[in-house]
Design brief:
With 268 residues, the protein is an alpha+beta fold. It has 2 domains: 1-107, Helix Hairpins, CATH 1.10.287; 116-261, 2-Layer Sandwich (Heat Shock Protein 90). The protein has 6 helices and 7 strands. The chain has helices spanning 2-73, 79-107, 120-130, 132-138, 155-171, 229-239; strands at 116-119, 141-144, 150-153, 179-186, 190-197, 244-249, 253-261. The strands form 2 sheets. A 5-stranded mixed sheet has the order 2-4-5-7-6. Strands 1-3 form a two-stranded antiparallel ribbon. The longest helix is centred in the first third of the chain and has 72 residues, at 2-73. The protein starts with a helix and ends in a 7-residue tail after the last strand.
Length: 268
């Protein structure tokens, strides 16, 4: 009887040791895969940055020379030729904006390891100063419904996050009586924020799509933009251990929600 129990215990112990070895091997494989994934992501971000940066100068030259062509020889060209030049200049400017946004996307999170305690009320004041002209021209009314917390974040990234969301809330608001509300709510391990507007709203089928890069729901003639801003916002929020989503009703406005972890988060 005793021998049988000992044999059973030996068998169980061997199975436990084998299981631990398998788990250790799987853990090592996961660590290696994560390392390779991080390396690929870093290389991809560096590639995007280099390509975008190198494209800016020749594109600037093309746009500049097209402008010179129009200003110096415009009187000798017919209306059709002038319209072609205008199309080329307009396309070049839009491409420059797209490249600038790509550079911003590639830079987002690159200094993610550098976190500092920041009063988000101060961030919001800076953002409102940055977009003062937009606020003034559109007569938008921005209300802060609750004081914002002090968190360990990347100052530059969080500044871009609020600026992108506030600018969008104003841009897609009604022509008159634009209102934007900013809210903050403390949770167990994070802070949840909301930026609410009274604009055109978003169809439910597009709630996730709008956070994908180059996604535009409207023509460039209706609303300016490259479709990169919300992708930048998503990357910033996720690099701070949070998530971002939208709730909206067509014709009645949208609310962009996002969370930021209370603890500093380092992600590649």
């Amino acid at each position: 009887m005793t021998e049988a129990i000992l044999n059973d215990m030996t068998t169980l112990n061997n199975e436990l040791v084998n299981t631990q070895r398998k788990l250790a091997k799987q853990h090592a494989e996961i660590v290696e895969l994560n390392k390779r994934l991080n390396e690929v992501n870093t290389e991809l971000e560096q590639f995007t940055y280099v390509v975008s940066h190198d494209l800016k100068e020749p594109l600037r030259m093309i746009t500049g020379f097209m402008g010179l062509l129009k200003s110096k020889y415009g009187a000798e060209l017919d209306e059709k030729a002038l319209s072609y030049i205008s199309f080329a200049i307009d396309g070049g400017k839009r491409m420059q904006k797209m490249i600038s946004d790509l550079l911003e996307l590639s830079r987002t999170g690159r200094q993610n390891g550098v976190k500092e305690l920041v009063n988000l009320d101060d961030i919001l004041k800076d953002v409102q100063q940055n977009i003062f002209k937009l606020i003034e021209e559109t007569h938008a009314r921005i209300t802060i419904e609750s004081s914002l917390p002090v968190l360990a974040v990347s100052r530059g990234d969080i500044n871009r996050l609020f600026q992108n969301l506030l600018s969008n809330a104003i841009k897609f608001g009604p022509k008159e009586n634009k209102t934007v509300g900013i809210y903050a709510h403390e949770k167990d391990d994070s802070w949840q924020f909301a930026i609410r507007d009274n604009g055109i709203g978003i169809e439910e089928e597009n709630f996730e799509k709008i956070f994908e890069i180059f996604t535009r729901l409207h023509s460039k003639d209706a609303y300016e933009g490259t479709g990169i801003g919300l992708a930048v916002c998503k990357k910033i929020v996720e690099s701070h251990g949070g998530k971002i989503w939208v709730t909206s009703q067509k014709g009645k406005g949208s609310t962009f929600h996002f969370t930021l972890s209370k603890k500093p988060v380092n992600k590649v």
